[in-house]
Amino acid sequence: MSSDFLQYQDGTNHVKYWVSYIRTLVDVQTLQQTIMPFLKSDQWKTLEELKKGIPIENIILTIDTDVIKEKLLEGYIVVCLSEYGLPCALVKATINKARDVSLPEVEFSVVGPKEAFVESIESNINLIRKRVTSDKLRIFEMKVGDLSNTKLAILYVEDICDEQNVHTVIQRIKDIQFDQISDSSFISQMISDNHNSPFPQLLDTERPDRVSSILAEGKIGIIVDGSPHVLIGPTTLVEFFSAFDDYFYNWLSASFFRLIRLFAVAFSILVTPVYVAALTYHYELIPSDLLNTLISSRRDVPLPPILEALFLELTIELLREAGARLPTKVGQTIGIVGGIVIGTASVEAGLTSNILLIIVALSALASFTTPIYAMGNTIRMLRFPFLLFAQWFGLLGIVICFSFLTAHLLRLTSLGRPFLEPIYPPRTIDMKDALIRLPFSLMSKRPQQLRTNKPKRFSSENAKKNKDIDE
Hints:
- The chain has 15 helices and 12 strands.
- With about 475 residues, it is of the alpha+beta class.
- It folds into 3 domains: about 90 residues, no CATH class; about 120 residues, no CATH class; about 170 residues, no CATH class.
- Strands 1-2-4-5-3 form a 5-stranded antiparallel β-sheet, sandwiched between helices. It has a 5-stranded antiparallel β-sheet with strand order 6-7-9-10-8, with helices on both faces.
- Helix 13 runs antiparallel to helix 14.
- The mean pLDDT is about 85.
- It comes from Metabacillus litoralis.
- Keywords: Membrane, Transmembrane, Transmembrane helix.
- This is Spore gernimation protein GerA.
- It is found in: Cell membrane; Membrane.
């Protein structure tokens, strides 16, 4: 018997009862001020009178021992009229300890709402409910994890979302065989289409405004109790490079920033491999003036370009990990001071060239432009295969590695939907909010890949009569 499980007998002159509860899950104030005064009074003799008399909504009368065990572990108080007799009254007195709604930490924005999800599933549903006030919003609750019994909620808009997507999500979650589910990232890995892909196939966000927006598009949200991140699916590759801030700016500015992010990702992956390939195999392609600069910078470097690049890339990764694992103030100091000291010392010691140091620093800086942290980790990993292929085959190796990457993305799906859409299969209609963001007046249709029940969001004819505010 657990030491925090309490069971005792009490009673008035006319009725005896047994009370059982787990002390660490029960709100003591609710127990002492609301429940116990009524139990000690002469106002009840049966459990039906008890249910009517206690001013608490969630009172259940049951004889099912499985239900009793389940509710006992959720913070309910069990009241019986005999020590082992049934039925019992289950009175909710759950203690709710959760942090307050705070600012987004990962997806912070200068403009727009400043609320982020917390670890409480009820609070997170409330944040979405107040933004999506439609009676068509459906919430399907489940429990996963044989040991943890983690509560999970699937959200979608009934008359918009494709039922096949909903059934796919529900079935995959039901098929999960695992004892402990601690975070939404567990669910993301277990219901993904390809478990061996480095690319995240469900988008996770901490912003309620983003979730409410994707629900209106016909997508599905998955909330896991204890996690401050909500999963979104099905998703596409281009969505991972679209910050929700894009919808708060003029469409020209938003499109420009989105293209900057896409260029930064390509630059982060390819610039160091191109440097290694050019200096190892294709130095004749380098302009003579630039070649002289490269030769002078590498004059005292004893390492070949590949080892020089790997040394700096691994140093950057070590600094990132150290900054992420240490306390905030110490981590910032390590990242700044460590980068300056190690970079300067490695150049002065002749281990690396100053040009490659600049290239690697710009590559690391470009990788930080990815709005979704999980995709940022994938971009960090991709540089190393490209580096190795560049060392083996030069520019041809980069092309071969890019071909493998493209083939993998073409085969990848998210909840059965193409991950590379609208690039492949090509869908011109969905390009309006992919590589660039067009004005709201042109976004009259929902994404084709979702196969929504209502493809049209609004009448495009009426939108043309009144120009959009950002045109």
